[in-house]
Specification:
- This protein has 315 residues and is of the alpha/beta class.
- The protein folds into 2 domains: 243 residues, 3-Layer(aba) Sandwich (Rossmann fold); 63 residues, no CATH class.
- The chain is built from 12 helices and 12 strands.
- The strands form 3 sheets. A 6-stranded mixed sheet has the order 6-7-8-3-9-10, sandwiched between helices. Strands 2-1-4-5 form a 4-stranded antiparallel sheet, covered by helices on one side.
- A hairpin with a 4-residue loop joins strand 1 and strand 2.
- Helix 4 crosses helix 5 and helix 4 runs parallel beside helix 6.
- The longest helix has 18 residues.
- The protein binds adenosine-5'-triphosphate.
- The site of adenosine-5'-triphosphate has 12 residues, from strand 2 and helix 1.
- GO terms for molecular function: ATP binding; ATP hydrolysis activity.
- Belongs to the ABC transporter superfamily.
- This is ABC transporter ATP-binding protein.
- One of its GO terms (biological process) is transmembrane transport.
């Protein structure tokens, strides 16, 4: 049973210009997507840069204005005015960002950064607050010495852990994680992802996990939507998406994941080329969601990047 439903969400950014700075056009960032969140489940949102992933996350949490659609949280329509500061929605839905550094106030000590949501929502006594901060630092695997330090004194992975400690401080229901590891070294990425999985299980957290990397999402998510130009071109369980992708764009994204397992690599490559050639034979042209035509014969069959190059006039 889902605790939150997003229905037909649209977010358009106005483009202003002219002498009076009036709205002259708009960017369609999110164009009618629907998704729902279940307790303890991770929902992945994947797509290339600019397809609208971050705007989706930011509009759900209330950092961007929603043009149309609705957000129903625990049976209540919170689209317009129930997501503000101090609301239970504001406490229960938290976000962690790609750039942990700029999401942490450089002038505040770690203890005050983590205490921020606690002071807003839990109203603990000073002793209880101290205990909660120590507890949170222990959960994210950091020493109590960290409390008096400033963000710049930590590595990227540690900063992300501080951001996570702040996000889980008030026992949220959903964490929106926007490319939480893409700025980190590969070895640290695995640590942070595994740690996020651990706390998901421990606290029954739900995630909206945003990434351009299908490999990362495969590791983390139960349900995945593939986003292209503001819309979902395909949604399904992890199993569906990885073993039986339907949309050619999903196939292209999958073929861009480095195939690191040498056993059977040649067979997989042959199979992929065959699948794509069959698709090309049956569909001379591929039409995207906006009706734009791609001539499949002119596209590289093994790399989805070709599609974006084509769009930019590169092919
Ligand atoms: N504040 C803004 N004003 C105008 N247009 C914007 C704004 N923010 C984003 N956009 C545009 O909206 C579209 C979606 O952007 P968004 O950042 O959501 O994509 P994304 O998939 O998260 O990309 P990335 O992975 O690069 O962050 C893009 O065309 C982008 O240029």
């Amino acid at each position: 049973m889902s605790f939150m439903q997003i229905n037909d969400l649209k977010v358009y950014y106005p483009i202003r210009g002219g002498f009076f700075n009036t709205v002259v056009d708009q960017v369609t960032a999110v164009d009618g997507i629907s998704l729902e969140f279940e307790k303890g489940k991770a929902y992945g949102l994947v797509g290339e840069s600019g397809c609208g992933k971050s705007t989706t996350g930011k509009s759900i949490i209330g950092l961007e204005k929603i043009t149309s659609g609705s957000i129903i949280y625990e049976g209540e329509n919170v689209t317009d005015n129930r997501r503000g500061r101090g609301s239970s929605y504001n406490r229960d839905i938290q976000m962690i960002f790609q750039d942990a550094h700029s999401s942490l106030n450089p002038r505040k000590r770690v203890q005050d950064i983590i205490a921020e949501p606690i002071r807003n929502f839990l109203k603990l006594s000073p002793d209880e607050e101290k205990r909660r901060i120590n507890e949170l630092l222990a959960i994210v695997g950091m020493n109590e010495d960290a409390k008096l330090k400033y963000p710049h004194e930590f590595s990227g992975g540690q900063k992300q852990r501080i951001g996570i400690a702040r996000a889980i401080a008030c026992n949220p229901k959903l964490i929106i994680a926007d490319e939480p590891v893409s700025a980190l070294d590969l070895s640290v990425q695995a640590q942070v992802l595994n740690f996020m999985k651990d706390i998901q299980q421990e606290f029954g957290l739900s995630y909206l996990f945003i990434s351009h990397d299908l490999g990362v999402v495969k590791h983390m998510c139960d349900h995945i939507s593939i986003m292209y130009k503001g819309r979902f071109v395909e949604s399904g369980s992890r199993q569906d998406i990885y073993t039986n992708p339907q949309h050619i764009y999903t196939k292209r994204l999958l073929s861009a994941i480095p195939d690191v397992n040498p056993v059977g690599r040649e067979e997989r490559k042959k199979e992929r080329i065959e699948v794509e050639s069959n698709y090309a034979a049956n569909h001379k042209n591929y039409y995207d969601e906006n009706g734009k035509v791609y001539d499949l014969k002119k596209l590289s069959m093994t790399h989805y990047v070709a599609m974006s190059a084509h769009e930019k006039g590169g092919i």
